[in-house]
Amino acid sequence: MRFTLITGRTVAQGDAMEKGKTEEEFMKACAIVELDPEDMEKLGVREGDTVKVKTSEGELVLWVRKAPGEQPGVAFIPMGPWANYLIGGDTEATGMPPYKVVDAEITPERGKVPSLEELLRLYTREEVR
Amino acid sequence: MRVTHRDVVCSFCGTLCDDIEVDVEDGRIAEVRHACRIGTTKFLSASRHEHRLLKPMVRENGRLKEVSLEEAVERAAEILAGAQRPLLYGWSSTSCEAQSVGIELAEVLGGVIDNTSTVCHGPSTIAVHEAGFISCTLGEVKNRADLVIYWGANPMHAHPRHLSRYSIYPRGYFRERGHQDRTLVVVDVRRTDTARLAQKFVRVQPGRDYELISALRAVVNGRKLPMDEVAGVSREDIEELAEMMKSCSFGVLFFGMGLTQSPGRHRNIDNAICLVRDLNTYTKFVIMPMRGHYNVVGFSEVLSWQAGFPFAVDFSKGYAWYNPGETTANDVLQRGECDAMLVVASDPVSNFPKPSVENMLKMPIVAIDVHPTPTTMVADVVIPAAIAGIEVEGTAYRMDVVPLRLRKVVEPPEGVLSDVEVLQRILERVKEIKG
Ligand code: SF4
Question: Which is the CATH superfamily of the domain at B122-289?
Answer without folding.
Answer: Dimethylsulfoxide Reductase, domain 2 (3.40.228.10)
